[in-house]
Design brief:
- The protein is of the alpha+beta class and 187 residues long.
- The protein has 2 domains: 38 residues, no CATH class; 143 residues, tt1808, chain A (Alpha-Beta Complex), CATH 3.90.1570.10.
- Helix content is 22%, strand content 25%.
- It is built from 3 helices and 10 strands.
- The strands form 3 sheets. Strands 3-4-5-6-7-8 form a 6-stranded mixed beta sheet, sandwiched between helices. Strands 1-2 form a two-stranded antiparallel sheet. Strands 9-10 form a two-stranded antiparallel sheet.
- A hairpin with a 6-residue loop joins strand 7 and strand 8.
- It is globular, with a radius of gyration of 17 Å.
Length: 187
Amino acid sequence: MAAVAPTQKLDRAEYRRRYELGEIPDNVYLLGGELVPKMPQNSPHAFAVSQVSEALTLVYLGNKAVRTQCPIGLSEDSEPEPDVAIACLPNLAFRDHHPTPAELLMVIEVADTTALQDRRLKMPRYFAAGIPEVWLVDLAARIIRRFTPDPAQLYYRESQHAPGDELPLPESEATFVVPADLFAAPA
């Protein structure tokens, strides 16, 4: 069945209901009550998502859920699908619901051509929902942008990390060392 564009803002319950009726396609997600198209993944994007997810899965090894491109219940009108999300509970805790901001330690987005869009559309919503840490793996800039709350400011503090840099991981003594091969070789 063809997708039906909503004429009004959707909440998560209506989004789910209309999806189950076949009125909403698989290639969108809900953000701010609106359907946002998912971007097709090129090879560098897919590689980066897989590499980050695999490294974090090894660190958290069943103690925390490392979810790859799965929905999170961000708010009543938003159900984005970040590239990687780390929840504070094992995956079994999420059999009957998507993790909420209170259940998330970190969200990671990988961007090749969408870094600016991610910063404008997704980041403010993640921050407003109280996600404690957000990474933006910026493939074009060849860095990881780490955002953490800054009590001295109204926004989050950004630090930039290049290959070889170590990033602390929430609720872990381990660090994430930015791999040199995370970023495609410059053309």
